[in-house]
Amino acid sequence: MEFKKSAIVLGAIAAVAGLGLMTAHANAAGTEFGITDARADKDASTYVHKTFANQVKAYHKVAPSLWPKNKDVNQYAIINGVDDKKFWMVTPTGKVSDMTEKEALSYDIDPQPLAGWFLAFNAHGKSGAFMAVTNEESHDTKRLVRYPHLGTYDLFITYVHEMFHATEQDSWQFPKKHYNLEHDEYMKHTDARRVRLQLQEQLMAAYTNKSEKSLAQALATYRYYKQNYEKDYKATFEDDRLEGTAYYYEIRSSLFAGYPDKVKTMKQNDAAVRTLFKQNRLAYLDSGAYAETYNVGALASFVLDWQADKQGISRDTWKKAMDSAKTNPMDYLDKHAKIFYIPPYKATMTNAEYKTMYKKIMNYKNLAE
Questions:
Q1: Each residue of 274-297: pLDDT tens digit?
Q2: pTM of the complete model
Q3: Residue 288 contacts by C-beta under 8 Å, 6 or more apart in sequence?
Q4: Bridge-based pairing state of the strands 76-81 and 24-25
């Protein structure tokens, strides 16, 4: 397997990924999603051996079923504990072994004393992710509470999300031109941002409540957006596919990896996602022409799963279509959802209300400036 070598600093990933907040209690049985004291580890070594390794092990048990002919499997991890300059190799089966710096460097990695440092590697017959972690970062409460779909510090999210980009998406088709390579958020395009936030809320309601009415409203909103904001539509189209499907994959994978005793089947995963959306609504909303692509694409992907079940077809059908640069989850949903009546578009908030809502989302995620 070959994929592009890439280095990324992901310390600000929560700002663009629309990730979650706060502990949620799901039902009368007491199922918990989110950070608890028992799930916070005292240092990087304990975290790698006790938590991350078990998440990788649980993930690889289900990974082949998460995407058709999934390439994001059998991936290793090399972790650099920045504070004490230690290195560990984590195998796909969750085994952890110490590495010397010389052994780690032989994998053509580039250690940097930066929280959130990521690099895809492929050497010595092993491929995977090189990542850095600091003790301070792993105990940052404001950061910890952003990921209820995992329930711990977020290194596994970097691992599974970025390796989906590096492996599965590496063979996908790409457009001749990407209209937002600089990841401009276009926050001055207030009307477009408001419409896209409305779309997210309608998609979330459609999936959470299995509501065809909400889906019809979402389709009406999407068609209005596509028709009236062509430049913005082009700017978001490709990342709705790339970041949206990666975020969808991240949430599915994290629930299996973070809660292996509670989420064992896809049916339980479906129920867990709906619980997260009900209990952590603001955590899974975002705004910004790039930031919101994670959310719009992922939410549309969950709705596509629901629609596939409803139509009696395989969920793999829509997933296989995503390797084409001519579609994305929302565009595919618009063409394949079986909704017999699409109502006229109707705005659900004013621009002023949108701005208030955006501030509320940022405050909820501890990301307000």
A1: 999 998 899 899 999 999 999 999
A2: 0.92
A3: 16, 185, 186, 187, 193
A4: unpaired
Contact 110, 121 (CB under 8 A): no
Pairing relationship of beta strands 126-133 and 117-123 according to DSSP bridges: antiparallel
Task: Quick: pLDDT tens for 174-198.
Answer: 999 999 999 999 999 999 999 999 9
For residues 259 and 268, give the distance between their C-alpha atoms in angstroms, rounded to a whole number: 11
Buried b (16+ CB within 10 A) or exposed e, 147-159: bbbbbbbbbbbbb
Alpha carbon distance 150, 195 (integer Å): 29
With contact defined as beta carbons under 8 Å apart, do 158 and 32 qualify?
A: no
Cα–Cα distance, 35 to 197 (Å, whole number): 27
Sequence-ordered list of residues with C-beta below 8 angstroms from that of 189, at least 6 positions apart, any chain? 229, 232, 289
Tell me the pairing of strands 32-33 and 76-81: unpaired
Which is nearest to 273 in space by CA: 284, 287, 286?
A: 284
If one compares 32 and 69, the residue with the highest pLDDT of the two is: 69
> CB count, 10 Å around CB of 264?
14
User: How far apart are alpha carbons 203 and 209 in whole angstroms?
Assistant: 10
